[in-house]
Amino acid sequence: MAPAQTITLNVSYELPDETWRSIAGVYQQMAGWRGYKDGIPYWFGNDGDAQFLWASVEPSGLLISGNLDNDRWESWMSDLLARLTGVLGIEVHDAGA
Asked: What ranges do the domains of the chain cover?
């Protein structure tokens, strides 16, 4: 089953390690944090569970994908965007928008 939600954020994969450590700190503060599985951060559950999210750093940006109900997805993404914007000092948004 394909993920219900997917977004690529304007967060470059070429950021320095120190910045990625700060982003990892944001991950851990987010609702539903479950930790890393094979180096991939997960929230709410694991791939294949009824509800889950994961993140992956791609050349196109920071990919967030998974299955959440729409209200939880909107709320969670709004929180993530605000936190990443604060940490990075740039407005983080949908890279495809």
From this structure: 14-88
